[in-house]
Amino acid sequence: MPLGVYLALLIVVFALLAKGILPNDMLGASAIMVLYGFTCAEIGERLPIIKNIGGKVIFATFLPSYMVYAHFIPKQAVKSVTTFMNQTNFLYVFIACIVVGSICSMNRQVLIKAFVRMFVPLIAGAVTASAVGIGVGTLLGLGAYKTYFYIVAPIMAGGVGEGALPLAMGYSAILGKSSDTIFAEVLPIVMIGSLVAIIFSGMLKHIGEKYPQFSGNGKLMKSGSEDEILELAKAGNKAKAELKIDLAQMSVTGILAFALYLGGVFVNSLIGLPAPIVMLLAVVIAKMLGVIPNSIENGGHALFRFIVIAITIPLLVGIGIAKTPWLNLVAVFTNPRYLIVIVCTVLTVVIVGWFVGKAMNMNPVEAAMVTACNSGQGGTGDIAILTAGNRLELLPFAQVATRLGGAATVTIAIAILRMIS
């Protein structure tokens, strides 16, 4: 952000706060999120070591959470952002636009092969991580029951809204406990697991820069037997770079994203499949069948770039302020046994993703990042993890890994708990 624009926004926002007249609406919340977002991101990008492990994303998400706790952010600003984040479901708008935009602009051949291959490292990582997490927790005295149901399962449940919440409701129905109490217990686990995955993603990015033979620079598949397909992808990327932004095409793609998500809401009412999954499957199938016109593909590229550049960091600030209580994070941070289990679980997911992906002709850095997203805060975690690794173009793969992997984890955990209770 140019310094002149930043200073103008800073002066106006604090003048409004000083007079107590900051609008409690989208405009007021957006101004706060942009101001704090780019400030925190700039700090994270300039700190030694931290900048190499996703400092921009970590600071944009968790520093605002601490600032709310320490009362460094005015209450009026917190209220404006919290109201906006909780009442508008803007996160789903973001997910819809970035997923549809990204998939529409992808190379069809690469998309098909990558989707077919990514499930194996995901499944291998989830199974191995569950075994390692339970083993470590048992050795530390937490017990297999506590470790799996309250640490390992929440980490890989697919986030908060579609992971921790249904998990807590399922546990509540079986155990007879308050779902709010259970939710409060598993929520910080999800958050810390996502933070650990963000850090590992930043480390993977650094490894990819230092050892380029392990990185595909955002591409999941390796070269070699798929040179022809990769050449097509390179040609497509070159065409995108030369493509002029067409606002009409971008708008149409955005409307398509909204329509697909709302269609997902309708399907969810019929069969219970989460709306984001329905949206994702619909656009993937359409892309694989080759029925998406060129105008939508071009608009998808423009929409994706706009969302990544202009929206991501401010959105992370909103998540930090409205959805990430600092005391919940501290409660887990101060329990070393929980931390050890969380780190071991996420690390296992990353390591298995690296080696299984490599064995399947994937770039290890990208394969590990995609599987790491199974340890994040759902769509929020996917964005943060991939942004830390500078691989946001992998979001469609991460969404499938997170949503389907999370749904499977929740279903299995509740089924096992019902069997043993």
From TrEMBL:
GO terms for cellular component: plasma membrane. Keywords: Membrane, Symport, Transmembrane, Transmembrane helix, Transport. GO terms for molecular function: organic anion transmembrane transporter activity; symporter activity. Signal peptide: none annotated. The chain crosses the membrane at residues 57-74, 89-107, 119-142, 148-170, 182-204, 247-270, 277-296, 302-326, 338-356. Pfam families: 2HCT (PF03390). Belongs to the 2-hydroxycarboxylate transporter (2-HCT) (TC 2.A.24) family. This is 2-hydroxycarboxylate transporter family protein. It comes from Clostridium estertheticum.
